[in-house]
Amino acid sequence: MRILPLCETASLALDRLVMSCQNQPSNAELYQTVHEKTQQLLYELPSHLHVLDEEECASFLFFCWDAIDHYITTFRTGRLSYLGYLSQVVRQRSRYYIAQQRERAHKERLLIKSQPYAYDDDSSSMTGESEYPYGPSCDPATLDIENLPALFNQLLTSEARPPERSSPAISEQLQALFLKETNRRRLLIVLTLCPDMANTHLLDELSLLLGVDRTCLSTYLATAEILLEKKRHCREEFEAVSNRHFRRLLEIEAQIDGETEEEELERLRALREWTAGVYKAKVTKIREQEMALTHNEASRILGIPKGTVDSSVYYIRRLLQSYMDETGGNEYP
Questions:
Q1: Which H or E run contains 99?
Q2: Among 322, 291, 129, 130, which Cα is nearest to 224's?
Q3: In this structure, which long-range contacts are made by residues 169-175, counting pairs with CB atoms below 8 Å and at least 24 apart in sequence?
Q4: pTM score > 0.70 for this model?
Q5: Interatomic CA distance for residues 209 and 190, integer angstroms
């Protein structure tokens, strides 16, 4: 339940409550009341004063949590009310909070950069064999979506070579099938539809299966992945909006619990129902969003007919299903 903005009478009442708490330190019930009101003000003030976004208010409250007792005991009546005193605290501490968040984000970026995809030393392998790095092995700054058709043709025209090493996940018969140009073309088209998953988890197996250079395949998939950035951004926006509606639902529930007037209760229940409907619609939209290219997008960027994409998906699906071991005798340890 929100308490801001406070009228002058409510602000004076809060001042007297805080002073009473200071004069009666053994009164646990009074202390709990003042502590909860202080928590609520520290949660609402950053957004109310426009120093922090609403999404940061909960984190800021925890940032100030240990100092709440200090704020209660050090407040003195005078020029500032308790609300004004906490407003000054929020303005000052929000600067430290923002600086701390930026420093943490900077450290996380440095940590990510300090963890390369490839092993620095082949001797780090416990088996003594050279390890293949996981994830993209190309510089994202060098990728250009205009190069995608050329990379696609390069993978198709490059001579398919037998794999230099075997993989327990790929049978020899399946490898022989994808050494054929037709099947290799179909699988590359299918991989274009969901390049992020393939480029992150299946790159080694796919390069072995297709008999193509791993670096060239990684560059191709990473380039195709650029087309997913807009969809990722859209999904993040939907998630942020749904999170706001969820927090609003919690606030409405708290208001309903503390409300006694029937007219206001009816209004809050109607608002809760509307907010719940919007929240459910947003969540449904998020679940329906697929982080993959459509057949139209793939055909347009590769310069091939949409029917070719459709047929490739159909034939590759049938081919792979015939090689999946789904029998009842397949026991896993």
A1: helix 82-113
A2: 291
A3: 169/205, 170/205, 170/208, 170/209, 171/323, 173/323, 174/209, 174/323, 175/208, 175/209, 175/211
A4: no
A5: 14
Confidence of residue 164 (pLDDT cuts 50, 70, 90): low
DSSP assignment letter at 145: G
Residue found by looking up tokens 């490898």 in the block:
175
2: left (phi over 0), alpha (psi -120 to 50) or beta: beta
Instruction: Give percent of the chain with pLDDT exceeding 90.
Output: 13
Mean pLDDT along residues 163-182? 68
CA distance 140 to 137: 9
Task: Average the pLDDT over 28-56 and give the result.
Answer: 89
pLDDT at residue 198 in the model: 65
Q: Count CA atoms within 13 Å of residue 261 on its CB side.
A: 5
In the three-class reduction of DSSP (H, G, I as helix; E, B as strand; rest coil), residue 5 is classed as coil
Q: Alpha helices of the chain — where are they, by DSSP H?
A: 8-23, 28-48, 57-64, 68-74, 82-113, 148-157, 172-178, 181-193, 195-201, 203-210, 214-225, 229-258, 262-288, 295-302, 306-322
Rounded-to-integer distance, Cα 307 and Cα 325, Å: 30
